[in-house]
Amino acid sequence: MFNLSALLSYVLVSTFTPGPNNIMSMTNGTNFGYKKTLKFVLGATAGIALIMLLCGYLNLFLFKLLPNIKLSIEVFSSAYIIYLAIKILKSNSNPNAINDYSISTFKSGMLMQFMNPKTILYSITVTSIFIIPYYKLSIILYLFAIFLALVGFISMSCWTLFGVLFQKILSRHRKLFNIVMASLLVYCALSVPDFKLLIHLFI
């Protein structure tokens, strides 16, 4: 039987807790304001909806057929998130970097979802546990994808507004703020199970 309360609980906890999307949204909100960050948020929202649909149709087929693809995706995704962390840190030493909106565009927001392990694993979990076992119609998958993407939009908007509201305070401590945000992104990357396993193999 479909458990709506369990789905909503999982969605809210997964969506509103710190992750690459929310951290990037707050960082961009602090540095560029809500209006310029909105493009990133909309791009991320579109990316979430698209990944939800892909996971709904493919479910865990690829991961069962090709187990190694999971490791490849997670390692590549983690490396990309670490790259974003480095880009945030670089803005400390380069005053002009704050005017570089390349990490706050629709394209960057959308593409990031395909390299965001939290979005990918979240989408796989939601579709395989809460949706596919109960609903098979395409229209239902589309409705769920839109709903879950909207929840993501609200979450990222809240984090962006938090960055905007505390912009003056955070601006005075921009170096520390960027270090904390970059550290959180690195933590997100290192928290991916297979990436942690790979690190242990080399250390």
Automatic annotation (TrEMBL):
The chain crosses the membrane at residues 40-63, 119-135, 141-164, 176-193. GO terms for molecular function: amino acid transmembrane transporter activity. The keyword Transmembrane applies. GO terms for cellular component: plasma membrane. It is found in: Cell membrane. It is a multi-pass membrane protein. It holds the Pfam family LysE. Keywords: Cell membrane, Membrane, Transmembrane, Transmembrane helix. Its main location: membrane. GO terms for biological process: cysteine export across plasma membrane. This is LysE family transporter.
